[in-house]
Amino acid sequence: MSDTRTDTATLLTLTFVVSFCSFAYEFVYSELLTVMYGGTVTQYVITVGLYFFSLGIGAALSDDLDGANLGGNFFRTEVLLAAAAPAGFLLIVGLNSVRIPQAVPAEVIWTVARLPVVVVGFLSGFELPLLTRMFDELDDDESATPSWLRTAGTRIHDFVVAAVGTLWTVERTEGRRSGLSVILAMDYVGGLAGAVVYARVLYPGIGLIPTIFVLALLNGVAALVFVAHFGEWSWWPFSGVTSSARPTSSASAAPGGNATDSTRTDRSLSAARVSKTLLVVCLLLTATYAGVVAKHDVADERLSQLYLEQQIENEYPPGAMRATVTSQETTAYQHVIRYNRTWTGTGPNPHFDGRTEQCLRLGAAVQLCESWADSYHEGLVDVPMSLVEPGPETKVLVVGGGDWIAINHLREYGVTVDHVDLDGEFMRDAKTDPFFRRWHDDAYEYDRLNTTVADGYRYLQETNETYDLVLLDVPGATDDDLLTLYSTEFYRSVRTHLSEDGVAVTWGYSPDAYPEHHKAFVNTVGAAGFTQELSYWVREDLDDDGETERVEQFYVLAPGDRPRLTGDGATRYVRAREEHYDSAEWHTVPHYRGVRQNSIFHPNYDILVDT
Amino acid sequence: MKRRTFLQLTGLGAAGGLAGCLGSNSPPPRKSSVVSDFEISDGSLVVDLADQTWVMSRYEAADQSSLSGFDPQSLAALSPVGVASAKGKSGGGGGRGATGRGTGGYASAPRTVHGHAWYHGGDYADDWYEDNAGKVNRFPVGVAALGIAYLGSTAAMRDDAPEAGPVPWDREIQDPSGTAEYDMSDGSQLGRDGWYRVGAHIVGDDVNHDFRWECYDLEVTDGIGDAGYSIEEEWKVSPRI
After folding, report:
1. Which of A19, A389, A477, B16 has its CA 20 to 30 A from that of A491?
2. Shortest CB distance from B84 goes to which of A111, A510, A592?
3. Structural domain boundaries in chain B
4. B133: helix, coil or strand?
């Protein structure tokens, strides 16, 4: 194989690798910004838009890069990408971890969080023009392309031209293809590979944090391969610049492609001229990333733990609470985080009795803390059970509630329960987990329980059952994936599966803290046919100071008039707190002007909350 | 295309695109007239309710006939005491969002009709109300309850001011009318330097609707010499409309 052919193959391989990385960076940033700020569609669309914009700027400005030092500039670009991409990742994580003064405008934070996308896009914009120009210098004749690639390319080309010729007038181009077409083709192949490998291997296999280091490692390796292939090194330490002496063919070489020694030297300088300092930086970065990737489990756990702990602590006044993540697990549907929160503030702890308690989150949304696990489920189950008869004739549907605790409360009333939850893995683990067993008391063995592992919306589409009580024990509206459970279509399905006197119950966000969510939610359930609502707070003396505090707000929704909570059917729980629940009244579901309902096919993203 | 032209065009495109991304879509705080004045007199905080109390809202009254059955007392009984926690508030976290109230900007802040600094108010709010005039109504309201709570020292409030809405009240007055007084020396929390929140639970006069709470954050200092307590800053903190 000729040197030129090897050079060509190397450049094409490098094109594949760098485009693989560039596309995958875009997806990593999109996903990271989604995790941090919510709104999958918004984050992906803006990231892709900014990325392509920056790519265009980089490509346009690449003309200004020194044509006599293409290789050096390519090497710099790869080293900078290898450094900037993980740094940008950590910057976004840091922005969401540190306590930023409230005086800093949200627009500034928004802009800074998108800077890594712009930087990586800009640098990636240099890559293709540089590679194209280098390829054009190398690829003087057809023979420079590896024969297998030439043969395969010719066949594919013949086929495509024939196919295109059925609709268009075509003229088969023979002979040498331009550097742009070859590099661009390889770029798209690399992009596709990057997308597929990221989606099917990297993200699900090792997670977001190790993925960014794998990609940066590839960039570093690409830079080193480039220099190793196109450079010959003078290891003399005082030489600031090294130059390649490797002969390559040249666009300005003698006719016929036979370059003279002098022109070869000139060309080799343009192919790889890099400083030793940058080379050392590249080696260090590559070695570091290799170490991180080799220990990706540890790196992933430690970094995400730091981030999560800081996130939790930021929800309290500075220095008031310390969070310690004790375990993390990822199922097919959710990230399950167990942590201890410890009161470190001055004065008595207003949040719970004692100094430390254990809590559980699914993603960013808190699901359970020891201090209010009981009272939350009493509010979800024991209060609305006042509106239906106990006994096996009463049919209850629980959507969500994979921790089985709501089922344990329902068991007390002897009702028949259909239970549907998406995450079978979480449900299975919760059965035997001591943390959950304290509250569910093996309720999964309840003989009037029928559990289905399925999506709640799809279940309601398929079942013909009607229910006297539907309990929505679902996660918060923090993610696009959950938009369906907050849609008109879902609530309409719930309503149509209610019995004549049936009601649906869900917990709700504060209208003051999340006004846009609240209005969108109210209009959504109203559009679904619910006309009456009754809201109540469940209260508990969380901090053992002799006074009760609010724990959670719930909404009972009905398509018509229903009795009060404190009527004849009041449960023992409600009777014991009659004064409190007697004041809860049914009201007409309000409607707010200018607020769109959330529909599956026409989402209103205002219904998502930014936790 | 010349490079300069190219850069100008792309710059304009980028600015336009980013402006679209950055622009806040959140509606402004609702306008209201509930408390006309705060004053400290003889060690007491005096709250003067406005002569005409009203609130702007996007609420659309569906059933005007239900007005007669409304009982403000029933809502007053629901007035919260304690801290919100559990799922909706990240386990008792408490919200952030009172940017700048404790860090200056008071003198130049936009004002309400009663002269209070209007948190999150300003030109954009006026623009929003102009653009959405057809979606907003002014509802006469009654004040079902007043609450007062000590929020914390000025330093503590700087980065941890609560969102709009009720907080655990140190004291409450049901069915206030005209003027209400809180004795600053009466109570374990009251009578300290720092920030206080005064909340008014408002309910519709003509519509059966709970408009929840309008709040005011006051910075109170001990004054100079025998001057006693004085109010340095008064911010109106309303939920977004």
Report:
1. A389
2. A510
3. 30-237
4. helix
